[in-house]
Amino acid sequence: MNTSGKKSNVRYVMLGFMGAAMLVNFIDRATLSVAAPVMSKELGFSAADMGWAFSAFGWAYMLCQIPGGILLDKFGSRLVYGLAMIVWSVFTFLQGAVYLFPSAFVMLFVFRFLMGMAESPATPASSRLSVQWFPNNERGFATSIYQTAPYVALGVFTPILSYVITLFSWHYVFFSAGLLGIVFGLFWLGFVRDPLKHKSINNEELAYIRNGGGIPELGSATQQKQAISWQQVKNMCANRMMVGVYIGQFCLTSITWFFFTWFPTYLYQDKGMSIIKVGLAAAIPAIAGFVGGIVGGMLSDYLLRKGYSLTFSRKLPIVLGMLLSCSIIIANYTQSAPLVIFVMSLAFFAKGFSNLGWCVLSDTSPKEALGLAGGIFNTFGNVAGILTPLVIGFIIQATGSFDWAIIYIGSMGLIGVISYLFIVGKLERLTLDAAPGTPAVDAVLHKS
């Protein structure tokens, strides 16, 4: 451990690793949406087929959230996340070779399903790491950094991967993304450590994290561990505050999955853009989403530092952003490509601005079960990962148009606003013994 008197800032190095890991995560998720317009035509997949292929990831991702959370609480984020990254990247790579199998569609579904299983601990691991490494008044910013990875993946890598298709073929989208993930997974295992085991951190930084509400001891031998019963899990699922947060996350994830699945196809088919133009056009809303995510997280932390309550500081960006995301419906009333891109950019900026669900989870989950709580939260949220691509696929199949699909996505913002305003209530940290209707509060952490 570093013994210098000046407070170290190792937490920002770890934040860089967290952001890069989430970037790799979402590049792998985005590969199919980038390849889909060309891949589906070459392999003869219908809109409904692609809906099922897009949803395969969501089925596995949702079903494995709770088991993934249990693994995180038992073995820690460093090991579980690193190994998971290598495994999901292997399945990403294999998607580029589905044409070699007797049924390309079946193997695509299987590989996407297995990739979803392997990625299930990713976001809960980041949430858990943010509690270990950051005090409360920096956690909104930390969360915004790793939660903006989807926007960077879309904004920077969609044009790059689209260009790869024009140079080579859709197969190399999967090959290149898979290799990137495998290499970074090895780097993660080599360099990432928990706070108490990192050689460069000093006592001053540990005290700063701890006194600010962070839990650097999380998962260490010094932390007193408590057995978790299924009744306590049920209490977390049934708590009114958490139910409202789950609904809000479902709505946000629905918007995310539209952009990560059908958006390039929407631009290609509905707006008649070429693959190169699709890559460039899809990047603009993603950049707006990145900016929105950073601004929303910084605003939330600023309000907290100014003495506003945790509830007001977290809810204000969420409610305002979700309300503004409804503007996506305007795209149905114009054929102007620049206006469509502007509307999509505004909606994605708003989605990023409101994307503080994981920060809320870090603020409110029982400190004894942050991995499990993250798994439960992501399970409910990622039902959208199944429903969104399927619903949109069937809408297109039935109507031949994206109009009702855009209305469906726009309505998610309004539902999320209603949930946070009328269901969530006051944000408080739960204990494992919290009753379903009235959250018990950990007094020490609540005061902090």
Question: Which short descriptors sum up this protein?
Answer:
MFS transporter, Sugar_P_transporter, MFS, Growth Hormone, Chain: A, 448 residues, cell membrane
Describe the 3D structure.
This protein is mostly helical. It has a single domain, classed as Growth Hormone, Chain: A, CATH 1.20.1250. It contains 21 helices and no strands. The protein is globular.
Per CATH, the architecture is Up-down Bundle
Whole-number count of domains: 1
The assembly state of the depicted protein chains is single chain
Q: Give the class-level CATH name.
A: Mainly Alpha
Order of helices and strands: HHHHHHHHHHHHHHHHHHHHH
By CATH, the topology is Growth Hormone, Chain: A
Give the class from helix and strand content and strand pairing: mainly alpha
What do we call the CATH homologous superfamily? Answer: MFS general substrate transporter like domains
What percent of the residues sit in helical stretches (DSSP H or I)?
Answer: over 70%
Label the overall shape: globular
State the low-pLDDT regions, or none.
Answer: 440-448
Mean pLDDT: 83
- Give the count of helical stretches: 21
Rg to the nearest angstrom?
21 Å
The N- to C-terminal Cα distance equals 26 Å
| Secondary structure: number of strands | 0
